[in-house]
Amino acid sequence: MSVTDAERAFYESVIDDPTGKSIQDLRYAYFLAAVDGGLPSGPVAVPDGIEATGTPSASTYLRGDGSWSTPPDTTYSSMPQAEAQNPNATGMRVISGQRLHQGVAAFFRAIPGYSESTAQVLEHDDTGSLVWTTKV
C-alpha cells in the first residue's frame, strides 16, 4: 500500500500543525504517515483544543473516542502441549518454535503416507485427497 501525493501533503500538514484538527483527522494523518514511513521519530504532543477524558501519562494512550486509556496487557505465557492439542482452547499464548514444529508434524502425520525419514511432496491424488508422494 502506498499513499498519493495529496495524502502525503495532508498528513504532513496535519503533523506539522495539528492545532484545531479533529481526532479523526489526526488518526488518519498518522495512519497515512505510518503507511508512508513518515512517522515522527519522537513523542508527539496532543494539540490544544482536543477534549479528552482521563489522565495522559507515559503508560496511557489517547483512544479514538477521546479518552486516555492504559493499553491491554500483552504479556503472554508459553502454550503448554495439552493446550496446543485442545481444539477448544482459546487462550492467547506464545507458541515456541518447538511447539510449532510439534503441531506441524502432527498435522503432517495425519495425512496418509507421511514419512519423517523420506523427502516427500504433498499433492492431491486422482480423487482430490491430499497424499504424500516421494519425488526423486
Low confidence ranges: none
Strand content: 5-15%
Mean pLDDT: 82
Tally of contiguous helical segments = 4
Order of helices and strands: HHEEHHEE
Q: What oligomerization state is this entry in? A: single chain
Q: Distance between the terminal alpha carbons, to the nearest Å?
A: 41 Å
Shape verdict: elongated
Largest sheet: 2 strands, antiparallel
How many DSSP-defined strands? 4
Q: Give the helix level as a range of percent.
A: 25-40%
The neighbouring-strand order within the major sheet is: 1-2
Short description:
This protein is α+β, with helices and mostly antiparallel strands. It has helices at 5-16, 23-36, 81-84, 97-109; strands at 61-62, 68-69, 120-124, 130-134.
